[in-house]
Write a structure and sequence with these properties.
single chain; alpha+beta; five-stranded antiparallel beta sheet; 4 helices
Length: 175
Amino acid sequence: MTGGPITGGPMTDVAGEAGLTHLDEAGRARMVDVSDKPQTDRTAVAEGVLHCQPETVEAVLAGHAPKGAVLTTAEIAGIMGAKRTAELIPLCHPLFLTKAKVTIEPEETAPGFRVRAETRTNGPTGVEMEALTAVSVACLTLYDMLKALDREMTIDGIRLVSKSGGRSGDWRAGS
């Protein structure tokens, strides 16, 4: 086969054998056509960790962060991120989310905060990207709101924990 239109490198049978559904037979980017896929209940859970100094965690929990209600603001930002995923990730389908929940808990062993997001829909495609985006945006919001207290923070371990629904069925990390 000839080289792909963007990379110029060798190209496999991207539409068939390799199963890269976001590329057409010529290697061009496309949004996957999901119009013939059945509507099913779909759920995804993702998580990530913001690592910071123990004093930063203490300041947040005591309500002494300079920018106010850090955890609530980051949780809302994560929900907003989930709802806007299709605007941020090329070729992602805009979805009607029936649930977007973000929870942030102190993580003593990090130390820092564990961010967890659950997204749901009833539709023809999954909500994994929405859950991952929710976690990413919540972590970035935490970072932004706490950078005056702690310049050494890191964001780590953003990953899909589980998904259910759709043709491929249920999946859980580590299984």
